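INTERNAL AUDIT FORM
Audit reference: QA-55
Scope: verify that the stored structure record matches its stored sequence.
Auditor: D.O.
Record contents follow.
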Amino acid sequence: MSKIKNDFNKLKFKKEHPEAIIPKYAKIADSGFDFYALVINKKDSLGSYAKDILIPPGEQALIRTGVSCSIPIGYEIQIRPKSGLAAKYGLTITNTPGTIDAGYVNREIKVILRNNGNKIYKAKHQEKIAQGVFTPVIQANIEEIKEFTEEDMKKDRGGGFGSTGIN
């Protein structure tokens, strides 16, 4: 599989646990790469221990990935749900899209998985639980003003929050 390689878009991942899986793209045209669950059901050589993660309907759980990363300044990783998990089990990411900022360095990435389905979901070790989308970030030049200009007001669409499309 051929991949575009540039220094400006390089993501560096580090395993924080030996059984963690480094995220990867499943197909060459994918916009998102997969994050995998780290669910250890026994004490390992590092002394890590985690019990089975069961997520009842309407509840959420923080799922470890066992990886950390270094993101170039000017970029972020957006954490998004896996469509297959959403369709089959009603699973989503609570804060979708979750954001991993460039300043979140050398800290384990975790995913807030929410069960909107009607059955208890058991998170499985090394299963795909989310996808990450690497995207540029443009920081705004924030300015305080006293009043909006006439040009600003021409953009006013009218109506309030959630009012578009309502007759």
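Auditor finding: record pair retrieved intact. The chain has one domain: 7-154.
Action required: none
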